[in-house]
Structures are given as structure tokens and as C-alpha cells.
């Protein structure tokens, strides 16, 4: 048996409503900018200058899956390096403070970005449609994955018992606990979907992989 649901919460302190309100304000601002990005992408598609396409036969079915995985891998790398840069003392205050202002994350923190951060995040999707051929379905699937993943990693509790996923999954994919540690410690766990860059570049908390194992062996 896994831990009861209430014991899987990761917050050290009670959630503060003022923080949630601030997160919502930033999220609305970010959403307005992301809407502008979407409008730009559609206009560029209409002008025929993007690599977006609409016919599944264009590159074949296998390419839909391949390009979807490619977008996630490229976005994960992009996010890791910009996120690490955001935490540099020169940039943190005006680029990334908004996302960390609430301390413990809640789902409302998922898209709580200062406007400069929202611009840098949005530029990824504005840029990717000029770099690799993407079907509209692939683009929408990547956007949905990003949204669901962001909410999942900012839940503030573990949605699933530790035994729900196989151990290798927890080692290579980022979940609520992994990202909550980033919100507590700042100096570790900069990745978005995968732990690959954190492991490779030594920014994974040294206790992270031992904690889930201990949980499993205790039950
Ligand atoms: Zn976060
Ligand atoms: Zn951060």
C-alpha cells in the first residue's frame, strides 16, 4: 500500500491565499503573451513561412510520433539552460523571481512567470515552427503535454503512490517531488520533463534517488 493521499503532500508550510492571487495575476499576464505568440504563429503559417503542415501524409505517421518526442527533448534542453541562467544572481530578480515568490508551489504557480520569463519561454514555440517540420496535431499535443506536465510538477503533493510508476520512470522523468525540491533549494533540479541534464551536469540533489527507494523499502 502507498501512503495515504494527505501524507503525500510536499508543502512545509500552509498555502497562503495571497501567494495564489499573485500567481494568478502573473499567469494571466503570461497567458496574454502566449496568446500573442499563438497569433504570430498562425499569421506566419498563413503567410507560408513556417514549417507547419496539415496533411498527415506529408511526412508519414511515424514522423508525428518522432517529431513529438523531438520537440519535448529540444524544449527540455532549452528550458534547462535558460532556467539555470535565470537563477544566476544577475538575472534572478527580474527574470524568475515571480515564479518562486510563492515559496511552495501550487498548480497556480505552473505558469506564474514574470513577463521577461514568459517572453523567453514563449519564444521556444515561436522559434520551433521555423526549425523543424511539425504537424498542427504535434504542436498542439506538445503544448498540451507541457501544460499538463507543468500543473503535475507544481501540485505540491504526489498524485500517485511511489509504487505507481516503475523505479526507472521516477529516475528519468520529472514529477512533483523533483520540482518541489527545486522550489525549496533553488540550486538543483532545473529540468522540465527529464532528469537527463540535471544528472549529466551535476545539478540533481544527491539524496533525490535514495528517498523514493527508502519509501518503497519501508512499505
Ligand atoms: Zn516551478
Ligand atoms: Zn527556478
Explain the layout of strands and helices.
Blueprint: H1 17-46, E1 52-53, H2 61-86, H3 92-95, H4 97-100, H5 115-131, E2 134-135, H6 136-153, H7 167-172, H8 176-185, H9 196-200, H10 210-218
Parallel strand pairs: 1-2
The chain binds zinc ion (ZN) (2 copies).
Q: Can you give a write-up of this model?
A:
Residues 213-219 have low confidence and may be disordered. The protein is built from 10 helices and 2 strands; from the N terminus they run H-E-H-H-H-H-E-H-H-H-H-H. The chain has helices spanning 17-46, 61-86, 92-95, 97-100, 115-131, 136-153, 167-172, 176-185, 196-200, 210-218; strands spanning 52-53, 134-135. With 219 residues, it is an all-alpha fold. It has a domain at 15-158. The chain has a two-stranded parallel ribbon with strand order 1-2. The N and C termini lie close together (7 Å). 27% of the residues are buried. 59% of the residues lie in helices and 2% in strands. The structure holds zinc ion (2 copies). Residues 99, 105, 109, 154, 179, 183 line the site of one zinc ion.
Give me some keywords for this one.
219 residues, mainly alpha, two-stranded parallel ribbon, 2% strand, disordered C terminus, binds zinc ion
Strand order of the largest sheet: 1-2
Kindly report how far apart the N and C termini lie: 7 Å
**Global mean pLDDT:** 89
Count of helical regions: 10
Fraction of helical residues:
55-70%
Bound molecules: zinc ion
Largest sheet: 2 strands, parallel
Count of individual beta strands: 2
- The Rg value, from CA coordinates, equals 18 Å
Strand content: under 5%
Structural shape: globular
The oligomeric state is single chain
Question: Helix/strand-derived class?
Answer: mainly alpha
> What is the H/E string?
HEHHHHEHHHHH
- Sequence stretches where pLDDT stays below 50 over 5 or more residues: 213-219
Amino acid at each position: 500500500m502507498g501512503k495515504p493521499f494527505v501524507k503525500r503532500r510536499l508543502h512545509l508550510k500552509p498555502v497562503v491565499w495571497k501567494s495564489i492571487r499573485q500567481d494568478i495575476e502573473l499567469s494571466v499576464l503570461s497567458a496574454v503573451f502566449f496568446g500573442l505568440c499563438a497569433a504570430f504563429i498562425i499569421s506566419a503559417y498563413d503567410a507560408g513561412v513556417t514549417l507547419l503542415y496539415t496533411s498527415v501524409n506529408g511526412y508519414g505517421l511515424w514522423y508525428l510520433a518522432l517529431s513529438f518526442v523531438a520537440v519535448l527533448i529540444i524544449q527540455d534542453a532549452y528550458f534547462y539552460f535558460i532556467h539555470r541562467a535565470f537563477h544566476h544572481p544577475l538575472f534572478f530578480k527580474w527574470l524568475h523571481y515571480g515564479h518562486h515568490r510563492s515559496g511552495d508551489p501550487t498548480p497556480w504557480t505552473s505558469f506564474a512567470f514574470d513577463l521577461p520569463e514568459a517572453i523567453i519561454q514563449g519564444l521556444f514555440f515561436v522559434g520551433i515552427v521555423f526549425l523543424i517540420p511539425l504537424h498542427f496535431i504535434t504542436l498542439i499535443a506538445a503544448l498540451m503535454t507541457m501544460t499538463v506536465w507543468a500543473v503535475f510538477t507544481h501540485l505540491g503533493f504526489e498524485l500517485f503512490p511511489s509504487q505507481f510508476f516503475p523505479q526507472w520512470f521516477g529516475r528519468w522523468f520529472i514529477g512533483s517531488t523533483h520540482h518541489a525540491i527545486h522550489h525549496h533549494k533553488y540550486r538543483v533540479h532545473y529540468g522540465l520533463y527529464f532528469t537527463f541534464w540535471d544528472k549529466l551536469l551535476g545539478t540533481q540533489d544527491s539524496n533525490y534517488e535514495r528517498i523514493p527507494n527508502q519509501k518503497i523499502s519501508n512499505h
